[in-house]
């Protein structure tokens, strides 16, 4: 009958799938994808990338320097030193990031902020890892002519 023929056909298809190891191939594909994603993450971490990025942390500091005291600085930076570092920072929501020197554990960001009077002030911001992200460890005025 047709039902028996259909059941026999399904049995043959199932045996064919088992013989071709379709399930094993799918599992192997997912394992390879996971290994490649993990390798990409490790490579990015070693190259100094993280979330939030160095640029994001610096932009948040310049957007609101007073709020950055609690959120943007590394936990091991003394609060009195943070006040001294934040004092010369010009609030500029459109700060220009001039460059980033990345490494796995620490980074340096060079930024230029525009004052209310239209002048520009350059900063060198040192950063340290905080998990997969970044926190500020030092902020100082930057004078390229002295480098």
Q: How does this structure look, described?
A:
Helix 3 (54-63) packs across helix 4. This protein is an alpha+beta fold. The protein folds into two domains: 2-46; 54-146, Nuclear Transport Factor 2, Chain: A (Roll), CATH 3.10.450. It contains five helices and four strands; from the N terminus they run αααααββββ.
Order of helices and strands: HHHHHEEEE
Using only C-alpha atoms, the radius of gyration works out to 27 Å
CATH topology (fold) name of the largest domain = Nuclear Transport Factor 2, Chain: A
Mean pLDDT, to the nearest integer, reads: 87
- What would CATH call the class of the largest domain? Alpha Beta
Reported for the largest beta sheet, the result is: 4 strands, antiparallel
Query: How much strand content do the residues show?
Result: 15-25%
Instruction: Give the number of domains.
Output: 2
Total DSSP helices = 5
- Given as residue ranges, the uncertain stretches (5+ residues, pLDDT < 50) are none
Given helix and strand content, the structural type is alpha+beta
Fraction of helical residues: 40-55%
Apparent shape: rod-shaped
- Major sheet: arrangement of strands: 1-2-3-4
Number of β-strand runs: 4
CATH architecture of the largest domain: Roll
Alpha-carbon distance between the termini? 90 Å
Short structural description:
With 147 residues, the chain is an alpha+beta fold. 47% of the residues lie in helices and 24% in strands.
